[in-house]
Design goal:
The protein has 2 domains: 154 residues, Rossmann fold (3-Layer(aba) Sandwich), CATH 3.40.50; 98 residues, ProC C-terminal domain-like fold (Orthogonal Bundle). The protein is 50% helix and 13% strand. It has 11 helices and 8 strands. An 8-stranded mixed beta sheet has the order 3-2-1-4-5-6-7-8. Helix 7 runs antiparallel to helix 11.
Length: 267
Amino acid sequence: MARKELQLAIIGTGNLGKALAMGLINSGRVPESITATRRNKSSIKDLAELGARVTDDNQKAVQNADLIILAVKPYNYKEVLTEILPAISPGDKILVSVVSGVGIEDLKSLLPENIPVFRAMPNTAADINESLTCISHQGESKDSIDSVHSVFNAIGKTVEIDESLMNSATVLGACGIAYVMRFIRAMVQGGIEIGFDAATASAIVQQTVKGAAGLLQERNNHPESEIDKVTTPKGCTIAGLNEMEHHGFSSALIKGLKASMKQIEND
């Protein structure tokens, strides 16, 4: 007998929640198995057009859900959990929070006992099934773990980490999308300055970034190993790299990561 598809409720379908829903549908999941919520339902009408259930009633959304993905803003997670609490009972639901900066113990303190609770940090590349999702929990059952991984493996890759590293995962994996986009934008602007039109520069840079990541994934090499292959004595590559480093390229990126981490810890 085929295994019954998990019924999912995504509570809070902003940019990340919507990316999760779109990625899951793109992966082949039955759209009707996903219920997405947002106060303004019209902003997720495209999900409804694809066959997902959409509602502005969070409690209604979780009633028949096997797995709840909490994707609200950190400032109102308590309010939303309190709202859906009457529809949550032990033994038939799993809660996965993608809310940054909110710990498992904080979540469990608001829930009945024996509710499996996970934290997950995907990124918006879930939309195209290329997310890297970091997952943590406090010793949940194999069935619960398998269920959570099956959902997030459908939108990319997963890795389990200690919860103490979840804020770091947010900075490196989720905020990291924005850092890479800013790098790409700068590369395109530089490409225009050295003679390309914007469309051609963008096409070259996008494929170059994709190829660079692919080299590391396929060969499992350190980045410096691949850099060495394109830096020749007195060549243009090393001249460019050194000029960037003279202006603090690596240092600025590291400082940016640390600034993001400090912001999460101070929230």
